[in-house]
Design brief:
Elements (H helix, E strand, L loop, with lengths): L6 H11 L15 E5 L2 E4 L4 E4 L12 H13 L9 H12 L7 E5 L2 H16 L3 E5 L8 H4 L3 H4 L11 E4 L19 H18 L4 E7 L14 H11 L3 E5 L26 E4 L10 E5 L1 H8 L13 H16 L2 H18 L7 E7 L2 E8 L6 E2 L1 H13 L2 E2 L1 E3 L5 E4 L7 H19 L11 H4 L34
Parallel strand pairs: 3-14, 5-6, 5-7, 7-8, 8-9
Antiparallel strand pairs: 1-2, 2-3, 4-10, 9-10, 11-12, 12-13, 12-16, 15-16
Helix pairs in contact: 2-10, 3-10, 4-9, 7-8, 11-13, 12-13
The structure holds 4'-deoxy-4'-aminopyridoxal-5'-phosphate.
């Protein structure tokens, strides 16, 4: 057994010794995952789950190249970055080759939050301004400085309030946002949403305040798997720079080739759209904590001129950098960006077709292996979020051993951000089961007390393996009009 404790005891100990606010997926019936490989995770009973959301296990869980790089380096040396080490400079060189000029200077840190916090420091030091513009519903990390620019956290009204220096621009969501494609057919919504930022800047300056930075994810995850319209970043960056601010692209979730065609999602907005600071994390270490800030020589110089040295005990240690180097090599050698485009397009097309069958599917959008399926009522009219139905989908898909999550301010967007080794067969399996679950939900009542069919639940993609070991009873009579109490977690 791969367990040290029975699951009930793990749950008991967690309740007793772990802060109650630390979230769990599927909190009613949490999973205990004991091993993983590629795009599959296995629980303590050997049950196999298709992982559609783990955008951290980018090159696949426990990729042998990454495991080898990590173990060889940890057996040899791990120490802080005050000594010269080749892994660090090789990683910096690789990263800077992946970015357009002048993005060429790296700072290594341990998490997306640390990267964004440092990005804010760099911006404030360089511009000598204080204020920050962020997008509504955004999440940029768990540090105090980042909760302050994460409407997802402060909108709830439960935690720290929004500080005066943070300013919130509307999320450029053309499906259910302030300006919708359906209301403005054919118009330049990128420009229209950017003008909102322009007037926000004017309001800030009228109060004798000044903008140090605009920060946004280049593809907006927490806001609901949103693809900003063309011309959005180009115009926003222009207005922000005119106001003396710098532009930060948070690529913590969407970077490292997830969009397929490019390494970074901001590149989808055009070759001339180049941020001043980019933050990267999650996929960079394939599960190991390593992240980075990439910026321009000019911004790095301003930071140096403060005379305050930057030291981060674990940031850029030889093991972290060995892992990041292995991740980048695997993406290149296994052509995972090409795979993201091919499988992503296939998945999008197949999911699009389900719109004809299921009126609840309002929008299917995505690029590469970053996909959102938005569930709404009255899709030809008001488009009210189908919140309970989305929650039921997650619950039922879990029973079918497919791990999914939802996102957006109403948690009604089913999100897929699978490891980049996701296959066409995985996409088929997802679509087939999702179709069935949507039919059940569309029929108003979920099936009563049926047992799983082994054939249906067989996850394709691994030769001859029937992962089904236990027959279990599935969801009994769930009435979608009642709250399914599914935990929604933003990652
Ligand atoms: N930025 C974005 C867009 C994120 O999604 C996250 C994590 N969910 C972070 C920053 C913070 O990263 P970390 O959890 O590694 O600190």
């Amino acid at each position: 057994s791969l367990e040290q404790l029975p699951k009930s005891e793990t749950i008991e100990l967690r309740k007793k010794h772990i802060g109650d606010s630390c979230s769990l997926f599927y909190k009613q019936e949490p999973l205990k995952i004991v091993r993983a490989k590629g795009q599959y995770m296995y629980d303590e009973n050997g049950e196999k789950y298709l992982d559609c959301i783990n955008n951290v296990a980018h090159i696949g869980h426990c990729h042998p190249e990454m495991v080898r790089a990590a173990s060889e380096q940890i057996a040899l040396l791990n120490t802080n970055s005050r000594f010269l080490h080749d892994n660090l400079v090789i990683c910096a060189k690789k990263l800077s080759k992946m970015f357009p000029d002048p993005l060429s200077v790296c700072f290594f840190v341990n998490s997306g939050s640390e990267a964004n916090d440092l990005a804010l420091r760099l911006a404030r030091t360089h511009t000598k301004h204080q204020d920050v513009i962020t997008l509504d519903h955004a999440y940029h990390g768990h540090l105090t400085s980042l909760i302050s620019i994460s409407p997802y956290k402060f909108n709830s009204g439960k935690g720290l309030p929004k500080p005066d220096w943070a300013h919130v621009a509307p999320c450029p969501d053309t499906y259910r946002g302030k300006f919708r494609e359906s209301d403005y057919p054919g118009s330049d919504l990128g420009k229209k949403y950017a003008e909102e930022v322009k007037s926000l800047i004017k309001g800030v300056r009228d109060k004798d305040r000044n903008i140090s930075a605009f920060i946004a994810e280049s593809l907006i995850s927490c806001g609901g798997q949103i693809i900003p319209p063309a011309n959005y970043l180009r115009n926003v960056y222009k207005y922000v720079r005119e106001a003396g601010g710098v532009c930060i692209a948070d690529e913590v979730q969407c970077g490292f080739g997830r969009v397929g065609k490019h390494w970074w999602a901001f590149q989808m907005q055009g070759d001339d759209v180049i941020p001043d600071i980019v933050t990267v994390g999650k996929p960079m270490g394939n599960g190991h904590p390593v992240a980075a800030v990439i910026t321009t020589p000019a911004i790095a110089r301003s930071f140096k001129e403060t005379g305050i040295e930057y030291f981060n005990t674990y940031g850029g240690n030889p093991v972290s950098c060995a892992i990041a180097n292995a991740v980048i090599s695997v993406i290149e050698n296994e052509r995972l960006r090409e795979n993201a485009t091919r499988v992503g397009n296939y998945l999008l097309n197949s999911a699009q077709k389900l719109k004809d069958k299921h009126a609840l599917i309002g929008d299917v959008r995505g690029v590469g292996l970053f996909v959102g399926i938005e569930l709404v009522h009255d899709r030809d009219g008001k488009r009210q979020p189908a919140v309970r139905e989305a929650s039921l989908v997650l619950k039922r898909m879990k029973e079918e051993q497919i791990l999914l999550s939802s996102d957006g301010p109403d948690a009604n967007v089913i999100k897929l951000k699978p490891p980049m080794v996701f296959t066409v067969e995985n996409a088929d399996h997802f679509v087939r089961v999702f179709d069935e679950v949507m039919t059940e939900i569309g029929n108003g009542l979920l099936t009563n007390n049926r047992t799983y069919s082994p054939e249906r639940r067989k996850i394709s993609g691994e030769e001859g393996e029937n992962h089904l070991k236990h027959k279990r009873t599935r969801t009994e009579k769930i009435d979608p009009s009642k709250n399914a109490d599914e935990m929604v977690i933003k990652t």
